[in-house]
Amino acid sequence: MTMEEITIDELDFALINEFFTELERQGPGSAEETIRALAFIGNLSNKTKIADLGCGTGFQTTVLAQNTEATITALDLYAGSIDKLNATAGKLGLQDRVKGIVGSMDSLPFQNEEFDLIWSEGAIANIGFEKGLNYWKGFLKKDGYIAVTYESWFTDERPAEIEKWWLDAVPEIGTIGYNISIMQKTGYIPVAAFILPENCWTDYYFIPQKARQEEFLKKHAGNKTVEDMIAFMRREAELYSKYKQYYGYVFYIGKKM
Ligand code: SAM
């Protein structure tokens, strides 16, 4: 569970986004793992069309653009993230192939079978794994690919404290085997599944948050919502360090049947 996924109604969407848009990533992941997942996708060319859903400020969007010749539409609910993504694309000279748009992943403004590849890192829980796979499939060409990271259990059983935390956040969280079965059930051939290494959580997610947390508490001194939000983030990091052998993000890659 990342802040973005669980707190929209519990905390303050604008504050969460104000916090996270200053960071490179809004969820666990890394350029290395994005490239690793990309290696499983066949038939990439300068005609390839990619949708990156729940793109945030677009860290992985840039990695996709720099490692393919594809055209990419990146979509997020938060306009501030999309502004940042489009500014970055401009600075890197990628504006002809990368376009950020504001929208919701459960009501996509796309044509049926428009895309060769749908990408989504750390965001599918916002619509639900099964629902997202089902709905997004309509926007993929036949033989198109999907690549998503999703919170998953590594073991069949786990301590009650961490089980409760995750069930509150992502009620449909399942094991890797279960999630692969959902991919098959929703009409994809599973191509690969791999666990994101620990540095995706520590070096690229929790550690960059620390200085921002201090700064944010100072800026919003006395704001109880901000204090609760930072306490939640710190708890998330503590629980990860205590229970990381039981869960993590898994990259699931499938091909539409
Ligand atoms: N993909 C980015 C990354 O890995 O750094 C961002 C991941 S962040 C954990 C989840 C993102 O999903 C946030 O940017 C949030 O604004 C976005 N989001 C949440 N609900 C959404 C929805 N219904 N439609 C589109 N984006 C949504």
From TrEMBL:
InterPro entries: Methyltranfer_dom, SAM-dependent_MTases_sf
SUPFAM superfamilies: S-adenosyl-L-methionine-dependent methyltransferases
Domain of life: Archaea
Methyltransferase domain location: 45-164
Biological-process GO terms, alphabetical: methylation
Gene Ontology molecular function: any one: methyltransferase activity
Keywords recorded for this protein, A-Z: Methyltransferase, Transferase
Chain segments annotated as transmembrane: none
Protein name: Methyltransferase type 11
Organism from which the protein derives: Methanolobus chelungpuianus
